C-alpha cells in the first residue's frame, strides 16, 4: 500500500514537472517571438514631409501622411510649454488605450541626449540627469515632470475637428494623426518600438 502511494506521488510529481516545463517553454517562446517582432519594426517621423514611415529594417512597409506636429515646429525642445516636437531617437514607453485623443503612445522623452545638453546649459541639475539616464539604462520611462517637459507622444484626434488637423500644426509638441491612422499604427507598434524623429 505504501509503495503504491510512493509510486502515485512520483507519477503525479513527474506529470506536474512536465506540465511546468511545457508552460515555461511556451511562455519563453511567446515572449522571444514578440521581442524579435518588436525589434524589427520601427517608426521614422519626417517632420518636414509631415509623414510617419512604418519600417522593417530599411524597408518601408506603410506610410501615414498629413501628420501634425507642435505649434512651435520640430527641433531642440528646451523646456515645458515650448510647443516644440523634439527631434531625436526615442522608444514607445507606454500605450494609453483610453485617451481623449483616442489612443496615446507615450515616447521616452527626454532622452539621455536631451538631458546631457540640458545639464550642460544649466536647465537641469545632476540629480535630474541621473534619473533620466537610469530610466534609459533600464528601458524605463524617464521622469515626465522635469523642466524639459514630458507627456510627448503620438496620438489621434479624439473628438477634435479633422479640418483643423489638415490646416495647421496644433499640438503642444506631440505628433498627431487622424483617428483612423492612429488605429492603423496601433496594429504595428508595441512598448519598446523605436521612434526616430527628424
UniProtKB/TrEMBL annotation:
<comment type="pathway">
    <text>Cell wall biogenesis; peptidoglycan biosynthesis.</text>
</comment>
<keyword id="KW-0573">Peptidoglycan synthesis</keyword>
<dbReference type="GO" id="GO:0004180">
    <property type="term" value="F:carboxypeptidase activity"/>
</dbReference>
<keyword id="KW-0961">Cell wall biogenesis/degradation</keyword>
<feature type="active site" description="Nucleophile">
    <location>
        <position position="174"/>
    </location>
</feature>
<keyword id="KW-0133">Cell shape</keyword>
<keyword id="KW-0472">Membrane</keyword>
<feature type="active site" description="Proton donor/acceptor">
    <location>
        <position position="155"/>
    </location>
</feature>
<comment type="similarity">
    <text>Belongs to the YkuD family.</text>
</comment>
<feature type="domain" description="L,D-TPase catalytic">
    <location>
        <begin position="41"/>
        <end position="198"/>
    </location>
</feature>
<dbReference type="InterPro" id="IPR038063">
    <property type="entry name" value="Transpep_catalytic_dom"/>
</dbReference>
<keyword id="KW-1133">Transmembrane helix</keyword>
<dbReference type="InterPro" id="IPR005490">
    <property type="entry name" value="LD_TPept_cat_dom"/>
</dbReference>
<protein>
    <submittedName>
        <fullName>ErfK/YbiS/YcfS/YnhG family protein</fullName>
    </submittedName>
</protein>
<feature type="transmembrane region" description="Helical">
    <location>
        <begin position="12"/>
        <end position="33"/>
    </location>
</feature>
<keyword id="KW-0808">Transferase</keyword>
<dbReference type="GO" id="GO:0071555">
    <property type="term" value="P:cell wall organization"/>
</dbReference>
<dbReference type="GO" id="GO:0008360">
    <property type="term" value="P:regulation of cell shape"/>
</dbReference>
<keyword id="KW-0812">Transmembrane</keyword>
<dbReference type="GO" id="GO:0016740">
    <property type="term" value="F:transferase activity"/>
</dbReference>
<dbReference type="GO" id="GO:0009252">
    <property type="term" value="P:peptidoglycan biosynthetic process"/>
</dbReference>
<dbReference type="Pfam" id="PF03734">
    <property type="entry name" value="YkuD"/>
</dbReference>
Amino acid at each position: 500500500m505504501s509503495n503504491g502511494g510512493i509510486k502515485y506521488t512520483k507519477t503525479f510529481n513527474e506529470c506536474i514537472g512536465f506540465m511546468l516545463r511545457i508552460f515555461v517553454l511556451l511562455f519563453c517562446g511567446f515572449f522571444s517571438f514578440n521581442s524579435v517582432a518588436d525589434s524589427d519594426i520601427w517608426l521614422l517621423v519626417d517632420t518636414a514631409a509631415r509623414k510617419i514611415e512604418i519600417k522593417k529594417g530599411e524597408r518601408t512597409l506603410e506610410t501615414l501622411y498629413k501628420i501634425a506636429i507642435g505649434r512651435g515646429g520640430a527641433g531642440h525642445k528646451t523646456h515645458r510649454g515650448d510647443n516644440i516636437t523634439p527631434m531625436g531617437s526615442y522608444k514607445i514607453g507606454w500605450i494609453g488605450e483610453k485617451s481623449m485623443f483616442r489612443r496615446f503612445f507615450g515616447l521616452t522623452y527626454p532622452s539621455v541626449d536631451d538631458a546631457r545638453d540640458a545639464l550642460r546649459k544649466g536647465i537641469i541639475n545632476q540629480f535630474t540627469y541621473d534619473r533620466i539616464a537610469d530610466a534609459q539604462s533600464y528601458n524605463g520611462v524617464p521622469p515626465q515632470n522635469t523642466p524639459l517637459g514630458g507627456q510627448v507622444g503620438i496620438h489621434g484626434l479624439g473628438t477634435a475637428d479633422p479640418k483643423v488637423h489638415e490646416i495647421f500644426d496644433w499640438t503642444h509638441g506631440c505628433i498627431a494623426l487622424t483617428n483612423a491612422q492612429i488605429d492603423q499604427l496601433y496594429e504595428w507598434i508595441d512598448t519598446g518600438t523605436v521612434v526616430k524623429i527628424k
